[in-house]
Amino acid sequence: MASSNFIDYVKICSRSGHGGGGSAHFHRDKMTSKGGPDGGDGGRGGHIILRGNAQLWTLLHLQYRKHVIAENGHNGGPNHSFGAQGKDDVLEVPLGTIARDAETGEFKCEITEDGQEIILTPGGRGGLGNAHFKSATNQTPRYAQPGEPGIEEWVVLELKLLADVGLVGFPNAGKSTLLSVVSAAKPKIANYAFTTLAPNLGVVAYRDYKSFVIADIPGIIEGASEGKGLGLRFLRHIERNSMLLFMISCESADIAEEYKVLLNELQTFNPELLDKKRILAVTKSDMLDEELETEMRATLPADLPAVFISSISGKNIPKLKDMIWEALNS
Prior knowledge:
Layout: E1 9-15, E2 48-52, E3 67-69, E4 89-93, E5 97-101, E6 107-111, E7 117-121, E8 152-159, E9 165-169, H1 175-182, E10 200-205, E11 211-216, E12 243-249, H2 255-269, E13 277-283, H3 290-297, E14 306-308, H4 317-329
Parallel strand pairs: 1-3, 2-4, 9-11, 9-12, 12-13, 13-14
Antiparallel strand pairs: 1-8, 2-7, 5-6, 5-8, 10-11
């Protein structure tokens, strides 16, 4: 997924169609000069509908479509003819898309399944024709009901990636390298901070044709929850992950302290993130000998499952997969 093509936030003007007006018509033919009311109902205005599409990973196709306008309903006709309904406008969105009111921030709906359809902005109802208003005391109603106006609103569509495991760590901790080793994903890898500027997804093959999805989140720095670095922009993707894999390089001066900083940033952003299962992976451990690894293990948080790995040499990668699978299914 190219970083320039990854769009996870768009703001659109959603306008549903107006309902068609009812008809105030009276029946006339060569045999009937003064027939009764036969005005038909107006058609419903078109809806704006969100539909889940598992083949999409980004909101890029909606980035430059600022106005989404559905068709108006048609007016009713004579001889009890109903007006045609306005054509719905269906927006295909990736799974994990949330819609909010742009002005109030109020949650509107969420798409989580392929093919799931939710009406984002309902169209106006069609008006009733004059045939509905006839009675014994009002045999010639010369009026009909107008169509209901459509709704125009600004809506924010926000994508939160659906993945089983979220990679959390400081920049240059080896997250993208691990993703490229355990999956077929090809994220950008380089020896400098903030190489990853957009989330990447990878499907990890496990035993007996099983698999799980890993999301590589851009590096977090101290103060990210306050807007530093890439700030809050990508932290929201972690909210959807079933578990978190903390990755800290063995080159760190204090692994336990870095872990506390990462944990604090997540807690500041959303305290519920601390309820997720966690595993600590100490990366680049191919540079360590057994004695040094034993010394470092004694400094790690006691209540956290930890493993020393190396994406380059493949050290403990199968063990890490086992730990993740066990945590996901426990």
